[in-house]
Structures
1.
Amino acid sequence: MSELTAAVPRGTSQTHSALVLVEKELRDLWLSGRGLVFLLAQSVLLSGITYLIATNQELNFLEQREALSLLVQVTVAVGGLLVVLTAADAVSGERERGTLETLLLTPASRRWIVAANGVATLSLWLAAFLLAMPYLWWIGRDIDTFGSAAVGTFVAGTMLALIVTGLGLLVSTFTQSNSVSIGLTFFTLLALYAPSQLPAEASRGWAGELLLRLDPFTAGLTYLDRLVIGAHPLTQDASLLVVPALLAVLLPALALAAAGRLSLLPRWAVR
């Protein structure tokens, strides 16, 4: 961390300081091998699912769509998990390792410190999405929804990644223990993801429809399900993405606002 303060001397502009911080966070994530390990685990998972699907020669047209939908949902779910593990470690991890003080001594503002972590975190989702594309193409090459499935996965998945990034950064900023931050954020992710696994009958009626539209993961995955299996146009179910889009803006904005009070200890621990 001492190299960081040397690379960002006093008097350096905020813009340059921010770029140095973003570069530092990206290096820490990718050159350390942590990001590559995450992607390797995703590759093994997608390879196993694709192999099982590809060896079944009796899939009909609808089952091919369902197989593609499964890969799309796995991509989004795994991408969200990777983002959670990184975002929840962003501030509390630096604080617990004793490196946050060095970051706070740089000319960059506290908001840029958190924003740099957010950029590095989102790079994981982008890498996970690009890694999944060959698998999605292989399964969906014989059906006409691959293009829209790829676009829909990127749009909906990016919204959900932004939501989880904002949530993880918020929890990490106000948490002293890194393990508590990761555990709390991971539990929240499971709680958001769980309603999407309810049977179709549970989503009927006004209560089910309300849950479908208010829970961002349920709304996003339902949108992708209708897009791939139902072969709906990209805009037909766009109303399902209203809440995910709003939260994708709100939660990162709250994380940046909270970063203004970032300190060596979480706010509740400062006397």
Note: Confidence is low (pLDDT under 50) at residues 267-271.
2.
Amino acid sequence: MYPFFRSLLFHLDPETAHRLTLQLMRLGGKQPFFSILQALFSAPDRPVNAFGLRFKNPVGLAAGYDKDAVAIRGLSTLGFSHLEVGTVTPRPQPGNPLPRVFRLLEDEAVINRMGFPSRGSEFVQKRLNPSLRDGPVDKVVALLRRRRKKVPDRIQKGDVILGINLGKNKDTPNEEAVLDYLELLQCFAPYADYLAINISSPNTVGLRQLQGRRALEGLLTQLDAQRRLEEKRLEKRLPLLVKLAPDLTEGELNEALDVILGARMDGVIVTNTTLAREGLKSEHRGETGGLSGRPLRLRSEEVLRQTVGYIDGQIPVVSVGGIMAPEDAQRRLDLGATLIQLYTGLIYQGPGLVKRILAKH
């Protein structure tokens, strides 16, 4: 069924198709669609423990699909153990000019130069805490939030874990980037099961410079200190993960991992999109932006292999990038990933990919 639906979607430009599917998933969070989707995409549990949290399986949705947390209830029906929303910025920003997303059909890939389009922190907080809204309250989400506040250290059996991916505003200079991340950490500490620090998107000028040793040490040391204050205030764990680029050299990656371990981060996510373009066939191969999908698979696997070997079990590793089939997912787990995340694979293979992965895991 999905190949037919995909053929219709692929007649639309990529951003229009994305908005359409996101609104369909938002609708899927309402009854009776919620129950129907749960029945269609229910998958066996394959429990994983990481960051002090219990995941019902190792498969999650990568950041970038639901940037503003508008469809988390519908997305929770698709079999994911965790949803990473965002990237969220402190203030609303439109992102880069259109067109900024391109399908590379021959390569089963996507190039995007979105540039962190975000409705901003305040909007996302209202999505996650309906009591802050002026409009009708989503009773299910409100109940979920109240339960989390009552039992902040609960083991989340059966729950979809919520990660929030954080990024600085485009007009915030790198020297002041820590202020954006600190603000976001404080805003989302009450709502997130974990926070992901995004310093690796290629579409915000200068952002990847924050992966250098000195900048990264300054950023993560302050975030760790603020995280510990929030944990004490909220009486809950607040895992911090760092998302890295696939384009770092071996030495640069090892330096970043040293800092991540030294700053007492809880995990690392590898990888974001790549600037590499080797072997592409599509007419869109020359577009600027981050490349995702099948061409990223080998590089993402290599970075995972290096990261797992260097970290040597000290913290969990989340693998994302180029996972297009159940075999790709199993290979990441065999290479030592604790969790995996999908995005572009869903565009080409459909939402049933999660269920197929778990059926073979």
Note: The longest strand covers residues 82-88.
3.
Amino acid sequence: MRLGEKQTLTVVREVDFGVYLGSEEEQVLLPKKQIPAGTKIGDSIEVFLYKDSMDRLIATTNEPLVMVGGTALLTVAQTGSLGAFLHWGLEKDLFLPHKEQTYKVKNGGQCIVTLYIDKSQRISSTMKVYHDLRTDSPYKKGDIVQGRIYDKSDNFGLFVAVDDQYSALIPKHETFKDLRLGQVIEGRVTNVKEDGKLDLSLRAKIPQQMNEDAAAILEALKEYNGILPVTEKSSPEKIKEELSMSKAAFKRAIGKLLKEEEIHIVEGIIKKL
């Protein structure tokens, strides 16, 4: 009998409070209210196995929203000192330990999780879903997609679940905006890797993005009384901090604004005309 999975088991005996499924050697209770009408000994029933509030293995014909090896977007029922409990379609809420949260969840919030069996042989959930997200998305380079940021890496960037199910990454060099874990974003597919994972950018294609960056620079000039706090010689880090764009994008936008005579440069200082 496989905890946390659906399986088909045989009815081996009946009792007042339900039926037992399995074999002579191993049996599990299916409570009376869960028994399909007309069920008799010898019938086969598809059930999901989990543990009840008394930590006993029990069967249900209800459909859980997530199983071992799959992922799902679940709603937080409540939080506590040990972790959170999630609605997952069964009577007993699903436990999400603090150590398995990639960011702190709140009552009524949502998070993407998968199931695992802990050391005590209980079903628990984790938000560390990288290895369980699907890699067979229908998307191709250039498509605009929606996804939820579920984890981050200082080396690689932000991990995203596109449509809450497909594996994607916003590479570190693309993270110019202030983004938070749990945030839903809209991005452009820049690459579909050989393994099916997606690379995303939050920036539009260069012509459109250049217009947006130029507008951002003009806004910054208003904020700083007509003198930009960075120049073409400023470090990429300083430009990113001040304007949330790469140095290359900054230079393209400055070139556009110079051509349109919106700005001029005096001794390296960028000023509004």
Note: The longest strand covers residues 6-15.
